[in-house]
Amino acid sequence: MQVSLTVNGREVSIDAPPHTLLVYALRDHLRLTGTHVGCDTAQCGACTVHLNGRAIKSCNVLLAQVAGAEVTTIEGLAQKDGTLHPMQAAFKECHGLQCGFCTPGMVMSAIDLCQQHPNADAQQVRALLDGNLCRCTGYQNIVKAVQMGGQAMASSQPASA
Predict the structure, then answer these.
(1) Which of 59, 113, 120, 151 could form a disulfide with 47 if both were Cys (CB 3.0 to 4.6 A apart)?
(2) 143-147: long-range contacts, CB 8 A cutoff, minimum separation 24
């Protein structure tokens, strides 16, 4: 089955069996290995990507379901010159990671979280990150990173008219 979509701003066509999950299409066919496979049951969030601007768990979506869609992975966040997305920079600055396995999915979820809830306090961030598991940290630095990244994202947005 041939499926065309846009991934990280680039139009691609993937030839894969109809039962192929998006996470495997990204990793195995496009070699975008920043999207991790954790649980294969949409419980851990390691596979989170953006589909048409919203965070989704790519282990729970068939490639065929995203035909014609726009997908952004962790590899598509930084600018071409290497400048990190504000949320990536905040995770780095706040050391919102340890082993790093959950980090790509956590960053992708955090961006969507901050777009939907731009002024979330620490308790709200913790609640809204439910579904993204980290087995290494106590989430303290992750919460700080999300709040810092959200503030940076908000300050980099042009004022609406």
Answers:
(1) 59
(2) 144/94, 144/96, 145/87, 145/90, 145/91, 145/93, 145/94, 145/96, 145/110, 146/87, 146/90, 146/96, 146/110, 146/113, 146/114, 146/120, 147/120, 147/122
Residue ranges with strand state E in 10-158: 10-15, 48-51, 54-57, 70-72
Instruction: With beta carbons less than 8 A apart as the criterion, state whether 57 and 47 touch.
Output: yes
Q: Which two tokens stand for residue 150?
A: 């959200």
User: CA 64, 34, 51, 40 torsion: positive or negative?
Assistant: positive
Mean pLDDT of the chain: 93
DSSP state for residue 25 in the 8-state scheme:
I
Nearest Cα to 77, choosing from 69, 92, 88?
A: 88
How far is it, in rounded angstroms, from Cα 64 to Cα 72?
A: 16
Q: Which two tokens stand for residue 106?
A: 């956590």
